[in-house]
Amino acid sequence: MDRPLVLARVVWFAGTLTLIGLAYGQTYSLTEIGTFGRGTGFSTAGAAINEFGEAVGTLDFGITSGAEAGAFIYRNGTARLLDGTDGGIAINNAGQVTAWLDSYPFVHALLYSHGTLKDLGSLGGTYTLGVAMNHHGEVTGDSSTADNAADHAFLYSHGTMQDLGTLGGSNSGGAAINRRGQVTGGSNTVDDAGYHAFLYTSGSMVDLGTFGGIYSSGSAINDRGQVTGSAYTAGNATSHAFLYSYGTLQDLGTLGGSNSGGTAINDHGQVAGGADIVGDAALHAFLYSQGEMHDLGTLGGTDSFAVAINNAGQVLGQANIAGDTSYHPFLYTNGRIFDLNDLIDEGSPLKPYVTLTEAVGITDTGYILANGHNSQSGIDSAYVLQACRRDDDRRHPHRCKQ
């Protein structure tokens, strides 16, 4: 049985834009999910958000002895914990959630759907983890086979867990799934001589290959079946981001340095990730669009990298601030990079106290999930941001108000 619903701290607001926000013209309301009244020693960390602003993540008890932990679900301004879980991983637009439970010697993959928590089972061993889910409630990840001899990618669909097999080697793992049930990830090849990215489609696992090295892995897939990830070049000298599209593996190059990797892709085939700049002096977030890799820059520090992209081409990521004292989440939009903290509307009572520190996800509907610290309460929490409607913009129905 679920724990009782707990009202999350919801704040809607309006006010004067910061100078940086003024240049963009878009501000965001802020909701603190909090720690369900458990105080210091506890924290929440967001893991995923859907198009309706519903989020999932984990309540962590840190070093507090004997305390509770578990997956949380946030929707409509309230959040609750799921009994029988240790953490939340993904949420789809139907509000279904994937979670996990560590019950030594077993690790269970769980699906919360319509008020019921279901164990997805395993491929014969003691370990299963579901890492991604589509909007039909299909789940992928990896599960141990009989006697824990190997780990294989799986597809859980319509109540059944299917072993996706391998590319001829021992192990495989699913990393992402699209609406069509196509899966990408990585697998050992014959004799475990290499590890290659794969696309599982129409009942078969397709080897996406490499750029001459022994390693590649798929990290994200869009609804057109295009895949991004990273692959070794000849002699395993470097690793480059790739775009796999309709049978062709394309090297996306770098920003002048040695290495790059793709982490996210939208339905237009735009790819976001990170790449070394000239001289390998730093790692910078990139947006690959219309045949070019664009350097997104940083927030005044050395490094940055992208974690998510929506269908408007907005990129969410992490970047060093000036002096490299910490990372802040950034939003790249309309050709500019912004510290997400600067886009929180000035009218928010939380703004003087909250520093967002980690980017998690962005939707097509104006929601962002991030993690941060509240200096007033002393807690680390997950935060949901929602785009506020400007007077001249009808795309976002939400109007920030005090």
Overall description:
The structure is a single chain. The protein has 402 residues and is mainly beta. It has one helix and 34 strands.
Q: Keywords, please?
A:
disordered N terminus; 402 residues; 1 helix; mainly beta; five-stranded antiparallel beta sheet
Quick recap of the structure?
By secondary structure, the chain is mainly β. The protein contains 1 helix and 34 strands.
Task: Summarize the topology.
Layout: E1 6-7, E2 9-11, H1 19-24, E3 28-32, E4 43-49, E5 55-60, E6 70-75, E7 78-81, E8 87-91, E9 97-103, E10 106-113, E11 116-119, E12 124-133, E13 139-145, E14 151-157, E15 160-163, E16 168-177, E17 183-189, E18 195-201, E19 204-209, E20 212-221, E21 227-233, E22 239-245, E23 248-251, E24 256-265, E25 271-277, E26 283-289, E27 292-295, E28 300-309, E29 315-321, E30 327-333, E31 336-339, E32 354-362, E33 367-374, E34 379-387
Antiparallel strand pairs: 1-7, 2-3, 3-34, 4-5, 5-6, 6-7, 8-9, 9-10, 10-11, 12-13, 13-14, 14-15, 16-17, 17-18, 18-19, 20-21, 21-22, 22-23, 24-25, 25-26, 26-27, 28-29, 29-30, 30-31, 32-33, 33-34
Count of separate DSSP helical elements: 1
Shape: globular
Distance between the termini: 36 Å
Low-confidence stretches: 1-23
Report the structural category.
Answer: mainly beta
Rg is 21 Å
Number of strands: 34
Estimated helix fraction: under 10%
Mean pLDDT: 90
